[in-house]
């Protein structure tokens, strides 16, 4: 099974929950990267790994010409509901179905890190942006900046084997994302971090949002939803307040590169 097909299945289990309950926490990350990408009226913008289209909605509000791309057909259906006038395409990040030099800017928000061949996905992003165009890639911050680390560890403990790719912090080290851009032939223009804290009214809301994520599904298949819920509940207990609300402080890292003129 191709990388994109596999990821598409994993992220299509509960697409509405992901798009409406979890994905919006990334709004500060989207805003920061769209700003550094210089997305504005008339920009031909690609969201590579657009999910339910949250960043696409922001880009469209800036007046850009939006194209969304994702491996999950179910999430793309939600994105089309939100932006019926925009183009949304299904496929694999390692084989983008777009012409060379077509876009002015491309965003890969927490998406290329799930590709089986990350460097091939980066080469594809470089290929589809015009000379002088910009590409942004993002990942989790360092473990000490991400309180979700305890949840990640709990989910990983329920899996029969460690997932490929080095886990959520494989690209969190200083300069790691910038190196990906450089290897793809892009000049690094900026690096930064975005504060994206997760807040839930109670554990039920937390579980519904979190368990919709594609990276949860192998653990669900391994130990079952009830056991995984128990394991994750123990991990998130330290972040639960007396009134039942849950708060997790997190940083996402990003880097932006520019194609040669």
Structure description:
The protein contains eleven helices and nine strands. It is α/β, with parallel strands linked by helices and about 260 residues long. A seven-stranded mixed β-sheet has the order 3-2-1-4-5-9-6. It has a two-stranded antiparallel sheet with strand order 7-8. Helix 5 links the parallel strand 2 and strand 3. The longest helix is centred in the last third of the chain and has 12 residues.
In short:
The protein has about 260 residues and is α/β, with parallel strands linked by helices. It is about 40% helix and about 20% strand. The protein has eleven helices and nine strands.
What is the rounded Rg?
A: 18 Å
- CA-based shape: globular
Helical percent range? Answer: 25-40%
The count of helical stretches stands at 11
Query: How is the main sheet built?
Result: 7 strands, mixed
Q: Order of strands in the sheet with the most strands?
A: 3-2-1-4-5-9-6
Q: End-to-end span in angstroms?
A: 38 Å
> What series of H and E elements makes up the topology?
HHHEHEHEEHEHHEEHHHEE
Report the uncertain regions. none
Q: Which structural class should the secondary elements be placed in? A: alpha/beta
Number of strands: 9
Name the beta content range: 15-25%
Calculate the mean pLDDT score and round it. Answer: 95
């Amino acid at each position: 099974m191709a990388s994109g097909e596999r990821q598409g299945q994993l992220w299509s289990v509960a697409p509405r929950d992901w798009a409406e309950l979890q994905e919006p926490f990334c709004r500060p990350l989207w805003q920061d990267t769209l700003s550094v990408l210089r997305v504005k009226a008339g920009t031909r913008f690609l969201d590579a790994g657009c999910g339910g289209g949250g960043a696409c909605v922001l880009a469209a509000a800036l007046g850009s010409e939006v194209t969304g791309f994702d491996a999950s057909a179910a999430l793309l259906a939600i994105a089309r509901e939100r932006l019926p006038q925009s183009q949304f395409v299904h496929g694999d990040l390692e084989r983008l179905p777009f012409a060379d030099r077509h876009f002015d800017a491309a965003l890969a928000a927490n998406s290329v890190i799930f590709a089986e061949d990350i460097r091939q996905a980066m080469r594809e992003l470089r290929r589809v942006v015009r000379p002088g165009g910009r590409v942004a890639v993002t990942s989790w911050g360092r473990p000490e900046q991400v309180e979700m680390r305890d949840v990640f560890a709990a989910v990983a403990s329920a899996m029969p084997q460690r997932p490929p790719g080095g886990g959520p912090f494989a690209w969190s080290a200083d300069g790691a994302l910038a190196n990906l851009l450089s290897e793809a032939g892009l000049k690094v223009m900026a690096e930064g971090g975005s504060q994206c804290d997760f807040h839930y009214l109670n554990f039920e809301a937390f579980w519904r949002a979190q368990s919709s994520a594609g990276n949860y599904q192998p653990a669900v298949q391994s130990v079952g939803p009830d056991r995984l819920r128990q394991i994750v509940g123990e991990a998130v207990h330290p972040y639960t307040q007396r009134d039942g609300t849950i708060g997790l402080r997190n940083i996402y890292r990003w880097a932006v590169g520019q194609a040669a003129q």
